[in-house]
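Protein modeling request. Please complete all fields; requests missing the sequence field cannot be processed.
Requester role: graduate student
Desired output: 3D structure, token encoding
Chains: 1
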Amino acid sequence: MSHYFMNDENLVSQVRELIYKYASFSFTFFSDNGVFSKKSIDYGSKLLLESYLKDDTASRKVLDVGCGYGFIGTVISIVNGSYVDMVDVNKRAVHLTKRNIKKYDNFKGSVFLSDAYSEVKDTYDVIITNPPIRVGKQKLLEILTGAFDHLNEDGVLYFVIRKDQGALSIKKILENDRIVETINKDKGYFIYKVKKMTK
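Delivered output (199 residues):
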């Protein structure tokens, strides 16, 4: 089986259209084989996105890491008027995201291929991610702790993780030198907001 964080050039394309509504906004997204949550918008991603939108209504400079077909980053840009960069290691995901944002004239930001932060040169007010748990704990922690090399001084990391995927142990690791707040939890999913400790 091909995982969504791998590039399988032999995977047959089967494009689908997914619909999402938030407040007065309506969105459609193209999805395809070989990307995360290809048949429906993932519940954890929805919970993360909607928890973030309730927590922070300001226009921020945002980085969406592991963007998939661009669900989270696109909605944040349109709803909050934020500038959003979206990155993924999966070429098909990046292609789909570029295709999806073309539908929205008021989208602000860019989309590019990056293995976590390998091609990220900028800094952001917010980094948001539904990290790929199947890549293993080491890569997961690289995504989460690495965020702080690309956040502005008062920047914030938001992420989602399920309890049975190690939510509480990951929280404990991050709490060593950061403030971790649980801003929402539902159906075993935890939404965490992480800040640097002030000196």
